[in-house]
Amino acid sequence: MFLKKIVETNRSFVDTCFKMHQSGEILPDSYVIDMEALRENAKKIYEQAKSQNIDVYFMLKQIGRNPMIAKELVEIGYKGAVVVDFKEAAVMMRHNIPIANVGHLVQTPKAMLQKIVDYGCQYYTVFTVDKIRDLNECAKKSGKKISLLLKVVGKEDMIYSGQTAGFRLETLEKAIEEIKAFEHVEIKGITSFPCFLYDEEKEEICATNNFQTLMKAKAMLEGHGIKVENVNAPSTSSVKTIQAMQGYEVHSVEPGHGLTGTTPLHAYKDCVEIPCVTYVSEISHNFDGLAYCYGGGFYRRGHLKNALVGNSLETADEMKVIPPSVESIDYYFGLEKPCTVNETVLMSFRFQVFVTRSNVCLVDGIRAGEPKLIGTYNSLGDEITW
Question: pTM for this structure?
Answer without folding.
Answer: 0.95
